[in-house]
Amino acid sequence: MARTSRGAPRSDEEFTFVSPVVKYLLFIFNFIFWIISLVLVLIGVYARIVKHAETALACLAVDPAVLLLIVGVLMFIITFCGCVGSLRENLCLLQTFCICLIVIFILQLTAGVLGFIFSDKARGKVTEVINNAIVHYRDDIDLQNLIDFGQKEFDCCGALTYLDWSKNIYFNCSKDNPSRERCSVPFSCCILSNDTVINTMCGHDIQELDYIKVGNRIHTNGCIDKIVDWIHSNLFLLGGIALGLAIPQLAGMLLSQILMNQIKDQMELQNYNQKHSFDPWS
Q1: Tens digit of each residue's pLDDT (9 = 90 or more) over 41-52
Q2: Does the CA dihedral 44-50-51-57 come out positive or negative?
Q3: Least buried of 65, 94, 135, 165, by fewest C-beta within 10 Å?
Q4: Buried b (16+ CB within 10 A) or exposed e, 210-247
Q5: pTM summary value
């Protein structure tokens, strides 16, 4: 016979091992990520249906719109199991939620280890993706803005060298190329000066100049080397981001495991009460 906070006796049927704090904390945790999953799905649908950017984005290893849809749908299903499982105290849904988090965490850890071990192959794949993006530079405004942002942010030009821009049909340096941008590079490759008037044509005919003259007008280093240098210089920052992504997953696994244990204890108590409900000596 349990007792209430005022000392009055309370029947075992009113007692519960399930903590409301754990239960609703897990629900809120899942509800937040459930909303995020809906946003990802909506963005993915917009990018896939409204934008019609399949041709331009086909150069990438994975279509970002499809990737957003896959991640959003998976998050929706997993967090839905967590929300309903915590509210209904359903062991099956909570176990599904916990197992999914464990599998995702292991896959992320494995991907990180494999990426570190096979860094040369990963570098080659990234180089291939960037070169393909250069080929489709003019095909989609969003892809163009993404490349320009990367080149401005890392002060770089091309994948391995600025001559990679000759792979683009507009910037190709062949003599039979009728484009006005023949032998040029995008403005995002240029070294910006403090002049009041910015020379937006600074990359014009740059591929035909000597390397020394080129270095005075544009960034000659490729973006791959710049990105690798940035990663080496910001290992602590990247480690903090990885830890920040892992903490919610670990918290979800811990809360779901605690709640499942409490539900199992509650089920055992209910079974015990049912067995002894008609026992006059209990």
Answers
A1: 998 888 777 665
A2: positive
A3: 135
A4: eeeebeebbbbbbbbebbeeeeeeeeeeeeeeeeeeee
A5: 0.73
